[in-house]
Amino acid sequence: MSRPLRQASHLSRIRTAAATAVALSLIAAATGCGSISGANGEQNSSGTTEITLWTWQSTINDFVTAFEKNHPNIKVKVTNAGANEDEYMQLTNAINAGRGIPDVVYLDYNAVHQFAISDQLRSMNDYGFSKIRGDFTKAAQNNVSVSGEPYGLPISSGPMVMFYNQDVLAKAGVTSAPTTWDEYRTAAQKVAALPGSAHITNDTGDGGFITSMLWQAGAQPFNVDGTTVSVNFSGKNVKKFTGMWQPMLDDNLIDTSTTGWSDEWWRKLDDGSIATLLTGAWMVSSMQKNLSQTKGSWRIAPMPQYAAGEHANGENGGGALALPKGTDDAKAKAAYEFAEWFAHDGGVKVNLAQGGLPPLNSVLSDSDWLNEKDAFFGGQATHQVIAKASKDVSTKFEYLPYMAYANSIAVDSIGQAYHGKITLQNALVQWGDSLKTYGQQEGFTVK
């Protein structure tokens, strides 16, 4: 890869395209959203620097309170500008308007790439990140880097694991967690034979899930070199995934009607109608909070493999704290101080207490953490599985610089495969064609 172009004319067109959305929403943002209007906050007479943090994390106050206690010279003002795409649109608006830009912002890993390639984030190397970079997992380093330059401090990770309801599988005659996709299919058939309408898992064509499954299969559908992008869903490892998943869809072994995070989804997880979840390890805390009937029945296992003995893995979720350009330089230094504390220092303890998964080698190798047993998971030492899953994540996968948009339109094509109107392989190719067209419209050179 080459370093992101700084002054290229086609990069200017990318910003111009993004500004189109600003023209439509800036008035509403300035009058109806406190996150856009006003200044970022100024140093007061006592010498305290106020920085603005954008995040949708519900437990952020625990971090802010702990940080401010030991950093009385920095005050953190928290703004929830919306989650995921909502926050990203507000951030785009603020950057293009040149005002109301947060000093530090939480971004999913794919969004780090999106804003970095548009030259809208500060390099973390300018603030000393190179001194601690090696303390993070290789996957985390890769997730915040574009052309080798880091644009965020990793604070969470989502190595893929398989959550499985041991009691449901046992009733179906499955005595151990499936270790290969062939075993997973066999287990799915046995679960489907149970009385009622149980399924091995659910999937409605979510772009983030599909991307993670492709990652785990070793596929590399996206390649980014500066502002040159290639999209290819015809590779052998893409077909390795679709060749495994399509027969599961054809035989109705997957629940394709229940949307993730819906009330019905939680109900089915808690009554045994959905027997496994294939997702990021961060799901632990959500399950503990939302499932009551099946407490003690769930376990965690590595993702099934395409061949026995393999240890391939992908990631689903996770993110970083980034420093947008356009803010005061002095505040940027204070913002970095907060971000490093959160990701690498005192914030790690707060994160772990909340059930988070900091992508730090020191955490993943800590014997006390590794040997903790979780009552929700039947007394299993779940961290041992999660730590191994983290180390198995491939670092070869790349995100598109407009991945948030890609995921938002995935259901338009991929969703059709879940209604039998098209094969999953052809749906992915259609998705890819749409992403190529969009990239060209945004000013990227697309192959």
From TrEMBL:
PROSITE patterns (alphabetical): PROKAR_LIPOPROTEIN, SBP_BACTERIAL_1
Keyword Transport set for record: yes
Name of one Pfam family that matches: SBP_bac_8
Keywords tagged on the record: Signal, Transport
Keyword Signal belongs to the record: yes
Gene3D superfamilies in alphabetical order: Periplasmic binding protein-like II
Biological processes annotated in GO: transmembrane transport
Recorded superkingdom: Bacteria
Signal peptide: 1-30
InterPro entries: Bact_solute-bd_prot1, SBP, SBP_1_CS
PANTHER family: ARABINOSE-BINDING PROTEIN-RELATED, BLR3389 PROTEIN
Family according to the record: Belongs to the bacterial solute-binding protein 1 family.
Protein name: Sugar ABC transporter substrate-binding protein
Organism taxonomic ancestry: Bacteria, Bacillati, Actinomycetota, Actinomycetes, Bifidobacteriales
